Amino acid sequence: MGSSVLNGIRVNMIYSACITIETPDCKILCDPWFTDGIFDGAWYLYSNNKDPFSAIGDCDYIYISHIHSDHYDPIFLRKYFEKFGEKLLVIGDFQSNYLEKSIQHDGFKHQVNTGPLKLGQTVVSVFPHETGSPSDIDSACLVEYFAEDRVHRVLNINDCIFDPVFLSNFSKFGQLDILLLSYTGAGPYPQTYFELDDPELLVAAKSKKSQFIEQYLKIAELVPAKVRIPFAGQYLLGGKLSHLNSYRGVSDSYEIGQIDSSAVILNDYEGSIDTVSFKATGTKACLTSTQEIDERLLEIKKQPMDYEAIPEWMISNKVLVSLLSSALIRASRKSECNQDYFFCFKLPEGGSAIINAKKNSDMPIAITGEELDGYLPRSEVAIDYRYLFGLLTGVFHWNNAESGSHLQVRRTPNIFSRDAQNFLNFLTV
User: Fold this and answer.
1) Count of structural domains, the chain
2) How far out from the chain centre does Cα 13 lie?
3) pLDDT digits (tens, 9 = 90+) for 92-102
4) 145, 151, 254, 361: which is deepest, by most CB within 10 A?
5) For 262-320, what is each residue's pLDDT tens digit?
6) Domain boundary among 300, 326, 351
């Protein structure tokens, strides 16, 4: 198909992590997400009044960076294929390829990128972010166009975190033309911390915002580019989680343009830039309107969560403890946590069930009342009991619960452990 770009590459901003990358040989759609209520009913787009089909148009291939629902959206893909015909999904060659399993389950054509995909003068390469952990899911995509006078390069690293070893893969390419990278992060902290009235939460949110900006700047220093496009991570929490939005600690892309002179801030659905002229169209001139956001929150604050369809009569202390006991066997075996770390789950009939995230721990489930002082470090977890039932039975997934801010947590001490958090991903029967 190709594009009207002469001897170069054009990047078109659609929404969040969704962009199109065009060369004279092909058009690649990246990470389209346009379905409201992902992450089990938690995440919503800033607006549902835009037409993504017109903004995207027809494409040749679709690159899916990783399995998260704001990147892999099978509901939208089916609608897109109905309009434009089925396209080949290109994904990374992960050691534990959860994304491929999901794509196979959904019945889509796909290709695991084990080497460069060559399309005329265009080369597409996918780089999985592999650390040896079964929790590795992210990837980056490099698009190169070999023109007569030079090589044009656009790198999309979307949600990949700052990892000097991984980012060193791109040093051999020298200065890139365009680098697309995340400037903010979605996660449960601090908005899911118990004491929401604690003014320290707003301080924590500000700190989180600063940390992601620092990560953005570190990546920018390690992976030089003529132009950087901050993107991805645009969402609002809906339903009963709507009140948490002010605590998320997320930046507006416009703010990045104020601190990075090489950043180009493209408007959703209309912004674009190419590697020939480097002239951007449809750039963002101000912060996203708070009125626009408030109006959207009014639309989504009464939306139901997916787990609300589970009957409450099915849930009891006995049922949940039994499920936790079975799930713990699997999770303990797969755990990457090498020291004691306790999760304390509140039970519907009172008390808490306590489990140890340490790898191959032989500690059985402990049932206690309010006394938790003997379990350190720990996370006290409050969660809708229907949702906990669904997580333990595999109807829902813990990573979606984390990304969707469904878990209310109190950490003692307030120190985050990624290894302990990853343990939850395997806590299912």
Assistant:
1) 2
2) 18
3) 999 889 999 99
4) 145
5) 999 999 999 999 999 999 999 999 999 999 999 999 999 999 999 999 999 999 999 99
6) 300
